[in-house]
What does this fold into?
Amino acid sequence: MKFSQLGLFLCPLVLLSACSDDDNPIQAANTGAISKVQLGPRPAFLVDQLADGELKTSLQACVDDMTTYSVSDFSIGHRGAPLMFPEHTKESYMAAARMGAGVLECDVAFTKDGELVCRHSHADLHTTTNVLAVPELAAKCSVPFTPADTANGVEATAECRTSDFTLAEYKSLTGKMDAANKQATTVEEYMDATPSFRTDLYAEVGTLMSHKESIALFKELGVKMTPELKTPAAQDLAAAGITQQEFAQKMIDEYIEAGIEPSEVYAQSFSIDDVEYWVANTPEFGEQAVYLIYLLDGVPSPTEIAAKNINIVAPIYTALVEEQDGVVVATDYAKQLKEAGLDLITWTIERKYTSMHEFEVLNVLKKDLELVGVFSDWPATVTFFDNCIK
It folds into this structure.
């Protein structure tokens, strides 16, 4: 980037006294759609790591010459921007929007009183929030904290589920970076375990959100929405007194009640039953419902998926690309999905599932496979690529 873009380096989505309120992602939360995409230094850093060649030359020219970047629907904020911000918090979502993510994700779980909230799992509050540090709430956890007994090889344990708490109790918590020290002998040690590739620098504030609040925020930001219906355990369904289908319907109903157009929503699930439910019962939302795929064992074939009137699938990116003789190429499975007429989304860039370079992966995903979108833990990476490589 040119020196004239210094502001993008000085104020890369963080709270600094040197930044104006307009550059402050938290204070700007009620100012409507993002007016200026800020990428910070990471995309240029990644370009520098590329091997010399046509791709690096093209991206380097973009670094040198492009002065503004546009919001990209190809860039999907995976739980916001959890590489550095506590996932599924208002601050994480704002950071992702600042980085030009045109689509934001709320993983949808539910509380004891049946209210929908943004959380990656029904059972992760002990690693993603400060619940263990709040005695009156920690006492309500399904599995209270038990310290490690290192002498006998016993790890520390805890399990705090969204269904252990009411919405009001849930909203009283503060989000933190997802981590746990299983060798801990105290709650403080258990919570203080952020891995080295992340940071606690922006974790002082982590505002938890209900699903309805995420819809309102995303609508205000002018971005599309991709809620993922999480799979509850039997104890969660029993605690809230609902069935899986009622859960699937309730999630869609909250978009309808908020006046969100179905074309703005990509409902997701790892359960093909959920996706088939939306296709059959809310066809306007089922039209672009997304079937998430992790392991291929037991997954219907591409033609079988298409026969169920499912239009979009989202496998992990390691199912779509691979390295052959040092070159990143599309897998046979990816080609089969395309041949079946399915549109593709994938997850998650910046999670370092492999040693493949992010931009080499994105090059195949965009140019060869023509993906609809790519989830990233740091959306600036995908936003930059989509703006630069047409």
Observations:
- The chain has two domains: 10-112+210-388, 122-191.
